[in-house]
Amino acid sequence: MAFLKDSPKKEEIRERYEELWSELLVRDEEESEKVLEKAWSELSVRDEGEPDKEDLEELDYNSVPTIRKILRPFKTHLTWIIPLSVITFFVLAYVIFIYIALWVED
After folding, report:
1. How far is CA 51 from CA 36, 38, 42, 46, 67, in A?
2. What is the pLDDT of residues 1-39, one digit of tens each?
3. 57-96, pLDDT tens digit by residue?
4. For an engineered disulfide with 51, which of 31, 37, 55, 76 has Cβ 3.0 to 4.6 Å away?
5. Domain count, the chain
6. HSE (CB half, 13 Å, CA atoms) of 64?
């Protein structure tokens, strides 16, 4: 397999890249980021060899796709507050129920 810099189709691929870039410029920022992340992840899967120690030290944990997928539903404060308040409500209801049950038993 030849490198792109040695390929006779280099100019054709560059034109396609420019078309893609101009299309990304008129798209939504989040959609453009998703396209770029997908392309980078496909490139990294195709790369052979193991990552260098320096690459692992420079790893940005905010860019790890699995973390973003897990935290995607919790982008706003409201989506954090609602589940936490529901959990707090049920814990307090349980504690109050036990406290009242012990108080009535005496």
Report:
1. 20, 19, 15, 13, 20
2. 567 777 888 888 888 888 888 888 888 888 888 888 888
3. 555 555 556 766 666 776 777 888 888 999 999 999 999 9
4. 55
5. 2
6. 9
Same domain, 62 and 24: yes
Residue written as tokens 């973003």?
68
- For residue 8 the two structure tokens come to 């006779």
Query: Domain check: are 16 and 66 in the same one?
Result: yes
Is residue 1 domain-resident? no
Q: 55 is in which domain, residue-wise?
A: 9-72
C-alpha 56 chain-centroid distance: 18
User: Considering the entire predicted model, what is its pTM?
Assistant: 0.36
Residues 37 and 49 reside in one and the same domain: yes
The half-sphere exposure of 26 on its side-chain side, counting CA atoms within 13 A, is: 4
